[in-house]
Amino acid sequence: MRRRLVLLAVLAVTAAGAALVAVSAATFTYSSSVSISVSTDTARNWMHMYSQSTDPQGDTGYAVQVGTATPAATGADFTIAANLGDVPNTNNANFYRLAKVLTVPAYPVAGVTTVTITVTVTPDSTTGKQPITAYGVATWGSQAFNTSLAGIAVNTKLQLNLRVRFNGGSWVAGTTYYPHAQVTLTYTGFTTTYYQYDMPITVKFK
Questions:
Q1: What is the CB-side half-sphere exposure of residue 107 using CA atoms within 13 A?
Q2: In this structure, are residues 204 and 72 in contact, taking their beta carbons and an 8 Å threshold?
Q3: Which terminus, N or C, of the chain has the lesser number of Cβ atoms within 10 Å?
Q4: What is the mean pLDDT of each run of 10 residues along the chain (206 residues)?
Q5: CA torsion 37→42→44→49, rounded to 10°?
Q6: 3-state SS, one letter per residue, for 39-102
């Protein structure tokens, strides 16, 4: 009788274990069959930023490093960056057409026909100093510094213009500073800064 009870107990434990395995397998199968699709928006769906070497339209006349014939900007979109070279403190160093800002052939939100392009700058993160004294976007070929331009339609090319001046303050000769320029796109009813390119800038005080 005792052996029979022990045998029944073993069988019960075995059955329970099998049930647990079955439940676990079913749960695993259910989890693995679930797939989540996430769609994301990006600045590239609205505009692009190009340097002379990446310009798909082949435009030239981009700003060069001080004292050279080398275009200051490199890369495109999220890799856009610029090295302005060695800038003396005697006068303004203007960088007209540092980069191209080009809106896309069709905006991805129904009803949106124009957008606003805004330029902001941030100082060197180490010193807190800002060598950029003027900045903005302008129509192609213009030397204006518009911190914001509204009513920009599709397929519109603009240029980013910057001015650097090392005057006043406690600038240190031979020091390289790393400010940034941000180009942001918004449209009516939408105020986030999500559609933005950040352009790291290198400039040395000669």
A1: 18
A2: no
A3: N
A4: 44 44 35 40 96 98 97 98 94 96 96 97 96 98 98 98 90 96 94 88 96
A5: -150
A6: CCCCHHHCEEEECCCCCCCCCCCCCECCCCCCECEECEHHHCEEEEEEECCCCCEEEEEEEEEE
